[in-house]
């Protein structure tokens, strides 16, 4: 796919849009600033000494240079291949609004998968074409069906893939991804959501960007970086695609405190080894249970587990103050729960809740 195809796939309204030019976009943020109707001083109730560098009276930079520089270095891409967003959620929303015409276009996904792809499509009025995975197949990506759908459905503008996938934890092999990218050429943008890639041994798909301008990679600080509260993610793609998204992102998407704290967060020591140990403990805790029918450890910081009674287990854990995610009501995930890897104390609490579940189960059986 050549680069002009990216524009050909975008909604004509977005191509024609004259993007809003903000004060911070159109002039330097140095010197005397009388161009953005801000107060000349901060009045946030915070002591100036506490957060002197934040200058909360000022609008923040739309794409703060230092953070763009840091994230592009971390992700191994060029600065013009990256757009910082309020989490990957915003990236998903921007992509859907740039490429899907309401009532005409569609997204392609493979459920069970992250729910926001479908929600973004629904909000935009795009159809959802789904190639479901099957438990019998260990939830592997149905590559053949996805490629068939691309062949049969000219409406598809976006293909949402996730590696590792949520909630099944599986990785997409590189040659599977390139097959899908080849099938999508000239027709659709292929998004690889890598929210959990740091937990896995795999490299990012972003190394394929030069070869495949139709590829988009989503990264986030929310999972492996332990900074979900900052709402900071990145869309990584061909500069031409990044510029299209930049046209519709709100003028000042990133709050100044988030920018400052994100710079801090990416300098902290990696927690990956600690999480990996805790994940082993969680797997061990689950492996010994008679009520666990199957588990998919996956490559992320959670485990998908099939149990005897997902509703009962989820309720029992909640009664003990431990929240796990019940996926029972989702197609293909009968009696499945997803459990996030927590701290040792969290897992102690979970283990205690399992003990109570087993006592209750034993008494129910006796009745
Ligand atoms: C958690 C998650 C996200 C959300 O990321 P934010 O950056 O916090 O918006 C995106 N994709 C998947 C698959 C996730 O599980």
Summarize this structure as a short list of keywords or feature phrases:
alpha/beta; single chain; binds pyridoxal-5'-phosphate; four-stranded antiparallel β-sheet; 13 helices; seven-stranded mixed β-sheet; 367 residues
Mean pLDDT: 94
The number of helical segments is 13
Number of β-strand runs: 11
CA-CA gap between termini: 65 Å
What string, H for helix and E for strand, traces the elements in order?
HHHHEHEHEHEHEEEHHHEEHEEH
Hetero compounds: pyridoxal-5'-phosphate
Q: What does the radius of gyration come to? A: 23 Å
User: Overall 3D geometry?
Assistant: globular
Which band does the percent of strand residues land in?
5-15%
Structural class: alpha/beta
Biggest sheet, spatial arrangement of strands:
1-7-6-5-4-2-3
Low-confidence stretches: none
Q: Roughly what percent helix?
A: 25-40%
What kind of sheet is the major sheet? 7 strands, mixed
Structural write-up:
The protein starts with a helix and ends with a helix. It has 13 helices and eleven strands. The longest helix is centred in the last third of the chain and has 23 residues. The strands form two sheets. A seven-stranded mixed beta sheet has the order 1-7-6-5-4-2-3, sandwiched between helices. A four-stranded antiparallel beta sheet has the order 8-9-11-10, with helices on one face. With 367 residues, the protein is of the alpha/beta class. The model has no long low-confidence stretch (mean pLDDT 94).
Structure described in brief:
This protein is α/β, with parallel strands linked by helices and 367 residues long. It has helices at residues 3-9, 12-16, 23-26, 65-75, 87-99, 116-124, 143-152, 174-184, 239-248, 256-265, 272-287, 310-319, 344-366, and strands at residues 82-85, 106-109, 127-130, 156-162, 189-193, 215-220, 233-237, 292-296, 302-307, 325-326, 336-340. Residues 87-89, 114, 162, 166, 193, 195, 220, 222-223, 228, 233 line the site of pyridoxal-5'-phosphate (PLP).
């Amino acid at each position: 796919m050549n680069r002009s195809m990216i524009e050909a796939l975008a909604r004509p309204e977005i191509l024609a849009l004259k993007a809003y030019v903000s004060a911070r976009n159109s002039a330097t943020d140095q010197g005397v600033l009388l161009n953005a109707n801000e107060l000349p001083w901060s009045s946030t109730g915070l002591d100036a000494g506490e957060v002197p560098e934040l200058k909360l009276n000022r609008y923040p930079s739309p794409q703060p240079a230092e953070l763009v520089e840091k994230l592009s270095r971390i992700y191994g891409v060029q600065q013009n291949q990256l757009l910082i967003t309020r989490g990957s959620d915003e990236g998903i929303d921007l992509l859907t609004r740039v490429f899907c015409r309401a009532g005409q276009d569609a997204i392609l996904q493979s459920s069970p998968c992250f729910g926001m792809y479908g929600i973004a499509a629904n909000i935009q009025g795009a159809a959802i074409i789904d190639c479901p995975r099957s438990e019998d197949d260990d939830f592997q990506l149905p590559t053949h069906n996805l490629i068939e759908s691309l062949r049969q459905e000219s409406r598809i503008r976006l293909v949402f893939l996730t590696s590792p996938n949520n909630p099944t934890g599986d990785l997409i092999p590189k040659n599977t991804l390139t097959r899908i990218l080849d099938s999508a050429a000239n027709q659709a943008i292929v998004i690889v959501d890598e929210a959990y890639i740091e937990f896995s041994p795999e490299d990012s798909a972003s190394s394929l960007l030069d070869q495949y301008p139709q590829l988009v990679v989503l990264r986030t600080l929310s999972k492996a970086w332990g900074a979900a509260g900052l709402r900071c993610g990145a869309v990584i793609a061909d500069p031409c695609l990044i510029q299209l998204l930049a046209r519709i992102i709100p003028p000042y998407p990133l709050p100044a405190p988030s920018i400052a704290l994100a710079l801090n967060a990416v300098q902290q020591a990696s927690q990956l080894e600690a999480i990996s140990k805790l994940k082993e403990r969680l797997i061990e805790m689950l492996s010994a249970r008679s009520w666990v029918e199957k588990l998919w450890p996956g490559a992320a910081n959670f485990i998908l587990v099939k149990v005897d009674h997902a509703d009962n287990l989820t309720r029992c854990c909640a009664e003990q103050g431990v929240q796990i995610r019940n996926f029972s009501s989702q197609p293909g995930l009968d009696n499945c729960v997803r459990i996030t890897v927590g701290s040792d104390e969290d897992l102690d609490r979970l283990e205690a809740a399992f003990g109570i579940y087993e006592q209750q189960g034993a008494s129910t059986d006796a009745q």
